[in-house]
Write a structure and sequence with these properties.
about 15% strand, about 250 residues, alpha/beta, 9 strands, 5-stranded mixed beta sheet, about 35% helix, 9 helices, two-stranded parallel sheet, globular, single chain
């Protein structure tokens, strides 16, 4: 039968962009799961409606580069796994991601590549992902005093840890925050997170954990050999925190 695709969207603004993306990606075999940042007004997003559009009941206040992004993503994955839509592939996107292909094209792509996982994975250390990224202690914004203290310690090189102590035998992996994974891989992610709370606890105090947490779990799993690079196009012309907005000349 047809493959069912779940699109998981982590958003905080641009409801109109999301509405258009949903329209382009909609097929009779797709469902949309949307997490609206707790700090954002959900009202404008609620105009995006349909029998295949679901908003997560739990809404996490999401801070860029912090573990709250992972918490919100896990909320989305759980919502999609528990849904009656029963999807085969889960496509995760953030913020201003916009589809350059139609929903039916994407569905055919997954049907032709059944059994593969799409997540950019590099073994750390790698360019852009030094070991300091996983070893440096970083407190989230909801712990301002500790955050302040750790910054002071960092000046003396003391805000450091050794991941090998906390992650058992896990080899750290990193990559782009967006991915497309099969239902079984997504089930594996939430089961791993549930059964290994110490792993989440470790990553909670790292910066940009959404580029390492899921990657480390998949990289150390039986899904690792089935993994191909993710399907997002990114343009990072200048070293910086955010990719460029795409313009028409890049889509040819």
């Amino acid at each position: 039968g047809f493959m069912r695709i779940a699109y998981l969207a982590l958003v905080h603004r641009n409801p109109e962009l999301l509405r258009r993306a949903v329209r382009i990606l909609s097929t009779e075999n797709s469902a949309f799961f949307i997490h609206v940042d707790h700090k954002s007004n959900i009202e404008p997003f609620l105009h995006i409606s349909g029998s295949n559009v679901f908003f997560t009941k739990t809404r996490v206040p999401v801070y860029w580069g912090e573990f709250s992004q992972v918490d919100a993503t896990l909320t989305l994955i759980r919502a999609a796994l528990q849904s009656e839509a029963h999807c085969d592939y889960y496509v995760f996107s953030q913020g201003s991601d916009y589809p350059v292909r139609s929903g039916s094209y994407i569905q055919r792509f997954f049907e032709q590549n059944r059994g593969l996982e799409f997540m950019s994975l590099v073994k750390m250390p790698a360019p852009g992902f030094p070991l300091s990224k996983i070893n440096k202690l970083r407190y989230p914004s909801d712990m301002p005093m500790r955050r302040f203290a750790s910054r002071a310690l960092a000046k003396f090189g003391l805000a450091r840890r050794d991941y090998r102590r906390s992650l058992g035998g896990l080899q750290p992996f990193a990559g782009d925050a967006c991915w497309a994974l099969s239902r079984t891989a997504c089930q594996y992610l939430v089961d791993f997170a549930d059964h290994n709370p110490h792993t989440a606890k470790y990553f909670r105090y790292t910066f940009t954990s959404d580029e390492m947490f899921f990657h480390t779990i998949i990289g150390n799993s039986p899904f690792s050999p089935l993994t191909r690079r993710n399907l997002n196009f990114r343009d990072w012309p200048e070293p910086g925190n955010h990719p460029e907005m795409l313009h028409e000349n890049q889509l040819t």
